[in-house]
Amino acid sequence: MKMNKNVRKQGKKQIKTNLMRCCRPDSGSVDLTTRIKDVVFRNPLTVASGTFGTKDEYAPFVDIERLGAVITKTITVKPRRGNPMPRICEAAAGMLNAIGLQNKGLQDFIEDKIPYFEKKDVPLIVNIAGESTDEFRMLVSTLTKYRHVVKAIELNLSCPNVEKGGVSAMRKRDVILDIVRTARSETDLLLIAKLSPELGDLIEIAGELVSIGIDALSLINTLKGMAVDVRKRCSKMAKITGGLSGPAIKPVALRYVYEVKKKYKIPVIASGGIMTAIDALEFLVVGADLVAVGTANFVQPTATLDILDGIKEFCVQNHIACLDDLRGSFKENRPAT
Ligand SMILES: Cc1cc2nc3c(=O)[nH]c(=O)nc-3n(C[C@H](O)[C@H](O)[C@H](O)COP(=O)(O)O)c2cc1C
């Protein structure tokens, strides 16, 4: 694999520092520490991209230094206004969104967000999307220069709400592979690919990405859906379709995390309907390394910390001293005799 020499040299030096300063261990009797590549997370709790503001919006509710990591809203090269409103709508067991990657762009991220997270003792995972392979390259190489704050890069390869660089474009296998290969050649930081079943055979794609050097997978992004206003006879959202998230997609997400973890040796960040500690524990039992809380943040702003407390309580009650004893402990059902 090709990698810029300087990037590799810088990376080795940083690994040691990362392990030391990335995070202080979580206090309490249960060891929730999680490690992926060279990044140490004090616990497995993180936030799903796009559901936790962009900087300090959740500060009144959540001390982010208690989280295992923060995953940012998708950052693009140029600022994006997003799709016209209405662009969110409630569904029976979740929500539809068609935000369309609204964000202030890379320059703003460097000038405004990096200085904020620099002062926080929490690993930052930056989620990015490009309209072309070159844009992905530029985002990855620029963000790698901020490795004292940026501990990982999550490639959003599965946004259902944009035309260029969205899930439809990524259905072409060579496009997705080209982006991941390019990103890999630009960074030695923990590199994560965020996928959804909308891309095609997710298990097969996961295998291909593993073989070209991805470090971890984020499973799953939203599933494309829609809602109709029968009085007006039109979609409840301006863009007609949107991404379905929340409890409605949890069984689908759980199935993919289970199958990917069973088939490949690859760390997985799970997202999809994690609303309670039991939801998060289900993902951990099938092998998830981190669990990302998304839609639940809109229902209950303290959801991440409530879930974290619930996981600790479950471990104490069940005499689990170390989360690794629980992670991946799923037992296949025995056929009835
Ligand atoms: C309002 C909203 C905005 C989102 N924005 C992004 C985004 O910018 N980038 C991304 O990769 N995923 C985005 N997602 C997907 C979430 O990160 C998550 O993968 C998905 O919602 C499933 O988790 P959940 O069911 O817990 O919400 C968004 C989801 C919602 C609900």
Regarding CATH, which class? Answer: Alpha Beta
The molecules bound to the chains, other than polymers, are: flavin mononucleotide
Largest sheet: 8 strands, parallel
Strands side by side in the biggest sheet:
3-16-15-10-9-8-7-4
Poorly predicted residue ranges: 14-24
Query: What kind of assembly state do the chains in view correspond to?
Result: single chain
Query: For the CA atoms, what is the radius of gyration?
Result: 19 Å
Q: How many independent structural domains?
A: 1
Structural class, please?
A: alpha/beta
Q: What this model shows, in words?
A:
- The protein is built from ten helices and 16 strands.
- The protein is α/β, with parallel strands linked by helices.
- It has one domain (about 5-85, about 100-225, about 245-325): TIM Barrel (Alpha-Beta Barrel), CATH 3.20.20.
- The protein has an eight-stranded parallel beta sheet. The chain has a four-stranded antiparallel beta sheet with strand order 5-6-14-11, with no helix packed on it.
- α6 links the parallel β9 (about 190-195) and β10.
- The chain is globular and about 50 Å long.
- Flavin mononucleotide (FMN) binds next to β6.
